[in-house]
Design goal:
Rossmann fold; three-stranded mixed β-sheet; 14 strands; globular
């Protein structure tokens, strides 16, 4: 693998740029090619750029590419999801097969399971019931990878992260709303049961993808997640802020009503609200995604972990003066 050429799509995004950094650190002898509509990193970083638009005919991939890491996808524009996530993936798999790529790594999403918020534990064998266009198009992309890679004689691995969190100044501030509420003493849980969160740090996702490049597994599907009780997450944040963990609870109907009101305001004013129906669902979720299969099957170890990721976010926001 040290002399392999690796092509990465979506290298300009949060996950893609982290994967490129991880590849440079862990596979220093590899030639890296970032494919997309704009470079993921500057040329002086030693990464080549190949222009590629998944909605257009794809260029011939450079000969010598041994591994393709397909991260690019459409998550916001529903009208482009099938063309990008399904058809674009099919075109890339076929292009990879034409130049003799040995391994294809596909970044999917746990959204393919369509699990409701009280589904219990979800793993790679759980039923798939996609609930929207994004989830259905990513599920179709997985099917393309499994079937076409097998036909073309390519090894393949599918990685399914949950909610990927990573701070990017000026662009991405994950969990800032929740952390700010805790800092201001306004945080409360809803209902009486225990709630679970499903977050995974971007560096842990990147590490799993790089590990999948080197592992002997073929045809595997792996969830990437660091499930944590909401009470534990609140305790980590409170500890970094020097505050006692909040134990305040409100009736579930209060949260549901507040969430509905927030969503209505967002819909009518087109302005983002700190609390809405989606946030209420997250704060009353009991579903857990099992992210341990990769640990069992090819010895992967999450290098950072969700607790360290959350604590580091709090430290970063305090340093930046956001709290």
């Amino acid at each position: 693998m040290s002399s392999d050429t690796v092509l990465i799509t979506g290298g300009s995004g949060l996950i893609g740029s982290s994967v490129i950094q991880a590849l440079r650190a862990r596979l220093p002898g590899s030639r890296l090619i970032a494919a997309g509509r704009r470079p993921g990193v500057s040329e002086d970083a030693g990464v080549e750029h190949l222009y590629m638009d998944l909605l257009a005919p794809l260029p011939e991939l450079p000969h010598g590419v041994g591994t393709v890491i397909h991260i690019a996808g459409e998550k916001r524009d529903e009208s482009r999801m099938w063309a990008t996530n399904h058809e674009g993936t099919r075109k890339l798999v076929e292009a990879a097969g034409r130049v003799g790529v040995r391994r294809f790594i596909y970044l999917s999403s746990v959204g393919v399971y369509g699990a409701p918020k009280h589904a219990g534990t979800v793993n790679e064998h759980s039923a798939r019931t996609p609930r929207n266009t994004y989830e259905a198009s990513k599920n179709a992309g997985e099917t393309v990878v499994r079937e076409n890679c097998t036909q073309l004689g390519m090894e393949h691995v599918i990685v399914q992260p949950t909610n990927v969190i990573g701070h990017v100044a000026g662009r991405s501030y994950p969990l800032l709303g929740l952390i700010s509420m805790i800092n201001a003493g306004r945080f409360a849980r809803f209902g009486r049961g225990e709630t679970w969160t499903n977050y995974v740090g971007v560096n842990d996702v990147a590490a799993m993808i790089v590990a999948a490049c080197r592992s002997g597994c073929d045809g595997g599907t792996y969830i990437a997640n660091g499930p944590a009780r909401l009470s534990d997450l609140v305790a980590w944040v409170s500890g970094e802020l020097g505050l006692p963990p909040s134990t305040r609870r409100l009736p579930a109907w209060v949260g549901a009503l507040a969430g509905a009101a927030g969503s209505l305001i967002e819909h009518t004013t087109k302005r983002s609200m700190p609390f809405n129906s989606e946030r209420y669902r997250e704060m009353t979720n009991t579903t857990q995604y099992d992210g341990e299969k990769a640990v069992r099957e090819f010895g992967f170890a999450y290098p950072v972990g969700i607790e360290t990721t959350v604590r580091h976010l709090v430290q970063t926001y305090r340093t930046e003066g956001r709290l």
